[in-house]
Write a structure and sequence with these properties.
The structure holds two protein chains of two kinds.
Chain A lengths: L1 H22 E2 L1 H6 L5 H14 L1 H31 L4 H7 L1 H16 L1
Chain B lengths: L1 H6 L1 E2 L2 H5 L2 H25 L1 H6 L7 H18 L5 H32 L5 H26 L1
The chains are: A mainly alpha, B mainly alpha.
Chain lengths: ~110, ~140
């Protein structure tokens, strides 16, 4: 039941931000919504209810590092798509390990 | 600032170009990543789980959609549009990279305020901080380039 609630809340919040992003012009502004805190809003709200505010605050602290990793990933994707000839889905999906590596690497650097 | 604000438009026609299965895909991706973030936090703790709150959840699906829309537009006038679609997705990714600064501001606000003030107020302030940071970064970039 808990997972179903997470799925529905997450899907709804993410869809809302995606629709707003679709409707906005110019594209560079719409792109900002690509890094909207949609999963965070859904997860943090549920985690405060289930595990308390201190637990959720610890997640938010780590999220700062996740956002830096997203910045690295998005810069590389942007550069590959504008300069290269790689299909969009291939570039965005195959570069996801860059985010994982950067996020875990930063976590290791900061917290050991 | 007014000049930049005038450039911002809400174009609902792009919503009509999006098919129901594309909305469904993003709903499923969003739901799945939220569940995944919860499971990772349960298994590895909030330190690792928190990283996944900034996972590029629907980014690949959204970027592909942008490419598809641009290609459809070009096809209507008899052109290929693959390159245009790729560049449009690249610009979107650049926008997302600026959005990451705002995402970081959201996370820092939540981190610092959540233990001190009510959750609803914290998340509302963090979302406003996100929107204000995203708007400021976008306008600064518009002025400089």
């Amino acid at each position: 039941m808990e997972l179903l609630v997470r799925f529905l809340v997450g899907g709804t919040v993410v869809s809302f931000f995606a629709i707003v992003g679709d409707a906005l012009k110019p594209k560079s502004l719409a792109g900002l919504l690509g890094a909207a805190p949609s999963v965070a809003l859904a997860t943090l709200s549920l985690n405060v209810l289930e595990k308390g505010r201190v637990y959720a605050a610890m997640e938010a602290e780590s999220m700062v590092l996740g956002a830096i990793a997203f910045l690295v990933y998005a810069c590389i994707v942007s550069s590959v798509l504008i300069r290269g000839k790689v299909p969009v889905l291939a570039a965005t999906a195959f570069l996801l390990p860059v985010w994982v590596g950067a996020a875990l690497g930063l976590r290791f650097l900061v917290h050991g | 600032m007014d000049e930049a604000a005038m450039l911002v438009k809400v174009d609902f026609s792009s919503l009509r170009r999006t098919r129901w299965n594309q909305y469904l895909t993003r709903f499923l991706f969003g739901g799945a990543v939220t569940v995944l973030a919860g499971l990772i936090a349960k298994r590895f703790g909030p330190g690792i789980g928190g990283l996944f709150l900034a996972f590029p959840a629907i980014f690949p699906a959204s970027a592909s959609l942008i490419q598809k829309h641009e290609m459809e537009k070009k096809r209507k006038v008899g052109q290929d549009g693959r390159k245009r679609g790729r560049v449009a997705a690249g610009i979107d990714a650049f926008g997302a990279s600026m959005g990451c600064l705002a995402l970081g501001a959201f996370a820092m606000t939540t981190w610092k305020l959540l233990p001190r003030i009510p959750t609803g107020v914290t998340l509302a302030l963090a979302t406003m901080t996100w929107a204000a940071t995203a708007g400021t970064v976008w306008m600064v970039r518009k002025r400089l380039w």
